[in-house]
Amino acid sequence: VVAIGMGLMGLTSGSQPLTTKKIAVLMFKPRNYGTEWVDRTAVRSAVWTDSASASKFYQEESFGKWTLEGAIERDGDVFGWYSIPFDDDGTCVSPQWRSWARMEAAKEGFDEARYDAVIFVSAATGCAGRAWTSGRNVTVISGFTAPTIMHELGHAFGLPHARAWVCEDASGAKVSISSTCTASEYGDYAVMGATTSFHMNGFQKGALGFLKATNTTDVTASGVYALHSIERGTREAQVLRIPRTSDRDGNIRDYYYLELRQPYGFDAFAPTSPYVNGISIRVAPEYTDRGSPSYLLDTTTPAATGFGDAPLKLGATFTDADRRVNITAMSISGGVAQVRVDFF
Ligand SMILES: [Zn+2]
């Protein structure tokens, strides 16, 4: 008995608890419109089984903490196609269609309460987009791709878009930061922005609980700080945060989030890409404020180019004259950046 007990302890100690997110796909179409435009094999591949699937993405993205499964089958639960007894009437997918599809799927074992998210695949006219999410319900009417599923599931897990900030100075010229910034809704290159399959940004990883306490360094004193790349699990700092603005009571309202990207796995950047040769700077609140957007800043020639060169280049300095801070990207070597922060 003692030996068995010790053996079990040996198995469990040191291994991360794995969170299994249960996902179902329900496919249905109105009787008078559309085609069965994606098949079960393609769906299963994109969500669960392919090496570039949403499941593999969340495994890498969460440092092995999360994986996607079905509630019935590990490699995914797919129901349909069902032809439902309603006509497309130009007002997009209706609640009645979904209810009918749920009823049909229930005959095959679908139990909605067992799922963290349900992906409805349909065909309809009059929709504002091709994929959207409301609560834990994702709907896709065309383009069932792995990046689309990664992005929409991010919403189902509680995240908004990763935005960018386009800022102007008093004369109307574009600058990296000012008090006059407008949001570019999909402006971040990360998955919750431009619907790429690039990793979530550090704020959103923290918001979903993927980061350890030791992965974040709050910087309040001038100095040189090491910053490890965001893609691989480590105990070292992967996010440097500088408190940026506070409310009247002195509570921190938002931070500068500093992050290093390197070419690895789903972050399949070219070695020459600006995204892996500089420090990405964003503005975002506390991790606990999961429903708030993050804002990527364009730290390189914002007046002349777009966000393709947003990260702070090696040797360059980002200055916030109001916050009285300089941030300098000093070096990147072996997946670790050295960043100098000077409060003045
Ligand atoms: Zn979205």
Q: Describe it for me?
A:
- It is a single chain.
- With 344 residues, this protein is α/β, with parallel strands linked by helices.
- It contains 7 helices and 19 strands.
- The chain has helices at 2-12, 40-49, 54-61, 95-106, 146-156, 191-194, 202-207; strands spanning 19-30, 66-69, 77-84, 117-121, 131-134, 137-140, 162-168, 174-175, 180-184, 216-218, 223-228, 239-246, 252-260, 278-284, 294-297, 312-313, 317-320, 325-333, 336-343.
- Strands 7, 8, 9, 10, 12, 13, 14, 15 and 16 form a 9-stranded mixed β-sheet that branches. Strands 1, 2, 3, 4, 5 and 6 form a 6-stranded mixed β-sheet that branches.
- The termini are far apart.
- The site of zinc ion has 3 residues, from helix 5.
Radius of gyration: 23 Å
Span of the ends, CA to CA: 64 Å
- The whole-number mean of residue pLDDT values reads 94
Unreliable sequence segments = 1-14
What level of helicity do the residues show?
10-25%
Count of individual helical segments: 7
Structural class of the helix and strand makeup?
alpha/beta
Basic shape: elongated
